[in-house]
Design brief:
Rossmann fold, seven-stranded parallel sheet, 13 strands, alpha/beta, two-stranded parallel ribbon, 294 residues
Length: 294
């Protein structure tokens, strides 16, 4: 019998890639989709091409009990998130609704009888410059708020495994976000300059396929409940990446270097996810990505 997985945030970049992977592995994939979702095309196309894909549309959280309280769900993967670097007052409701209220509502209403594993995606931004909790922004604080709520459910449902998977930055093919690698590729194709805020910008970058591999390991391996980190082996200086890549390119990556103050690199310590290690590196992948985007 097929194992069923419920995914929140399936229309995001990681969500779309993970959904494709899980369907290829013959899981039954159910996804919660807001009716106003901007990615309905992805949902319709995926549903048309795969009978194991089941979108569940909803208007607001009040309808969730009717939609999912009687489903048999083996696994839940929570990718739903609202990222805001620097919030203003108007952002408060969206941040709390997306990162705490909605995710808690899903966890509360999901039947726990058959639930084997609940996987929540968290962020390096919880740690700022310290090894202990020290949120970089309000977004990170809301993510920590939900983690604390997960602890409550973990204490009351001993037969379910609970995980918080911490991520840094990521990239991949067909990335439409305003992330730096996607921006470099887009500008390169348009023959435009990419603005680099500082020669000190360093990011820990993983291919989205590596993140999907981590989820697969948690689903398939016996791993204790807990907090786990997946990360590239080293941080990448973006200016150095461009310069080294340009050595091998006929058409060079153009850039405009500023001298803006940037946040300090967040390099915190946490247990790495068992069985997982990265096999791709942005320094090599960027040539493939340039070809794919051109």
């Amino acid at each position: 019998m097929k194992k069923s997985i419920l995914i929140t945030g399936s229309t995001g970049f990681i969500g779309q890639n993970l959904t494709k992977l899980l369907l290829s592995l013959n899981y039954k994939v159910l996804v919660l989709i807001r009716k106003e979702s901007k990615n309905k095309l992805f949902v319709k196309k995926t549903q048309k091409n795969n009978k194991n894909f089941h979108p569940i549309y909803f208007n607001n959280i009040n309808i969730l009990p009717k939609k999912i309280s009687k489903l048999k769900i083996d696994y839940v993967i929570n990718l739903a998130t609202k990222w805001i670097d620097k919030h203003n007052y108007k952002d408060l409701i969206d941040l709390i609704n997306s990162n705490i209220l909605f995710t808690t509502a899903v966890l509360d209403v999901i039947p726990k009888k058959n639930l084997k594993k609940f996987i929540n995606v968290s962020t390096y931004a919880l740690f700022k410059t310290s090894k202990k909790y020290n949120p970089y922004n309000l977004y990170a604080a809301t993510k920590k708020g939900f983690e604390d709520i997960v602890t409550y459910y973990q204490n009351n449902h001993k037969k379910t495994y609970f995980y918080n998977l911490y991520l840094y930055d990521n990239y991949g093919v067909n990335d439409k976000r305003s992330k730096i690698i996607a921006k470099i590729l887009k500008d390169y194709k348009a023959n435009k300059k990419t603005t680099i805020l500082s020669n000190k910008v360093e990011l820990n970058l993983l291919n989205v396929s590596e993140i999907c591999k981590a989820f697969r390991l948690i689903l398939e391996k016996k791993i204790n409940s807990g907090n786990y980190l997946i990360r590239a082996k080293k941080f990448t200086n973006i200016l150095d990446l461009i310069k080294k890549t340009n050595i091998k390119l006929n058409k060079k990556i153009k850039y405009n270097l500023l001298n803006k103050p940037i946040r300090k690199k967040i390099d915190f310590k946490m247990n790495l996810l068992p069985y997982w290690k990265p096999s791709t590196f942005i320094e090599k992948e960027i040539f493939y990505l340039i070809d794919e985007n051109n």
